[in-house]
Amino acid sequence: MKLLPLPLTLVKSLRRGLYPLLARAYRGLLGDVCFVGVTGSCGKTSTKELAAAVLSAKGEGLLGIQIFNQTVDIARTVLSARPGHSFCIEEIGASAPGQIAISASIFRP
Q: Measured between alpha carbons, how far is 100 from 58 in angstroms, rounded to an integer?
């Protein structure tokens, strides 16, 4: 049997590694959905709600429901989006340097 060279990614946690990987792939299938990411040290939730109120005039959308702003939660929000949604809005926070860049690479606002 000949083994084929396959790309591998080693992760400490399947949940933390698999969700972002799936979300990145699935996000590519949602080309018509407008993704809006809200960052900052204060006012993310209010801004998210206000943006949703404005964008809902164009159709149904999805708001990130988790307030933890972790990479897994961002991935879970992307995986909850559907092709029929007009928009998807998520709060993107950081608990360590570089966290926003990682979350943005999954969410791709």
A: 28
Residue in this structure with the two tokens 């995986």, named with its chain if needed: 79
Q: Is 38 exposed, middle or buried (0-12, 13-18, 19+ CB in 10 A)?
A: buried
Which tens digit of pLDDT belongs to each residue from 30-63? Answer: 988 999 999 988 998 899 999 999 999 999 999 9
pLDDT value of position 37: 93
> Is the entire prediction scored with pTM above 0.90?
no
CB 34: neighbour CB atoms within 10 A? 15
Question: In 3D, which of 23, 3, 45 has the Cα closest to residue 108?
Answer: 23
Q: Which amino acid is at 16?
A: R
Which residue in this structure is represented by tokens 């939730």? Answer: 45
Cα 34 to its chain centre, rounded Å, is 12
CB atoms within 10 A of CB 66: 13
